[in-house]
Give the backbone structure.
Amino acid sequence: MPEQEIKGSTRLCGLIGNPVRHTFSPQIHNTLADLTGQDLVYTAFPVENPEGLDAAVRGAFELGILGMNVTVPYKQDVMKSLVGIDPAAERIGAVNTLVRTENGYKGYNTDYVGLRRALEDKGISLKGKNVVLVGAGGAARSAAILCAEEGAECLAILNRTVEKAQSLCDAVAAHYDKIKLLPFDLQKAGSLPLDAYIVIQCTNVGLYPKVQETPVSDPAFIRKAEAVYDLIYTPEETRFMKLCKEYGIPAWNGMDMLLWQGVSSFELWTGAQVTAAQAEIVKKKLRKVLKERQ
């Protein structure tokens, strides 16, 4: 794969957030640019001062930056600086992708799209199913809206603070009236009143380097899982995943979600259609970078 030449015509994309130096996004987007022949480069832009966020967005637009990703802690605050918001992102209440328009940036949420495509790749359908979200934070919001959009029968949200789980249930109920919603105490997961379910693990418990931690260990909860998707991608196999596999439950990490949310952003910026073969090349590169960093 030839190295891209940076010219005066080269378009720029990037990531804003704090911190951002650890990000894998440049590996995703610069590889995609090479693979698809796009005259584009991607880098990270730390915005350390929250008061400077609006100026950073306006400045990026004035400098002609094609598009940006947004990460913590700005996925909600950045919405005030946009000229438009995609309906799905509005329902989620968070934006992670800014797409250039004539008058400013429009906000999208490709975390939602990335999770959907990752589950599709694993042959997991949410339609008519019981789904359990472990956690009620920002990642869980995207997953919750996806479950409602995809026609899940019941969505249980498990969190150590039940009030936070209830708040997320209320946010979903404000837009969807057909899905059954169940806020539940994570510490009582084994007594969850559902017979079988798909689990989406949305917390950072078990994230490297705290690899011995797990959000749930109760066999009574794990045995009833049909499939498990853990949004963590480092380590490659979390302790929660290992526990699930010990009971014969198929479990996957969040690498595909990381991949597909990036691909979706890239496609929004460029109009390119990334092939499955090209996505697989990017995933292999991500795995290599992850191993080098651990």
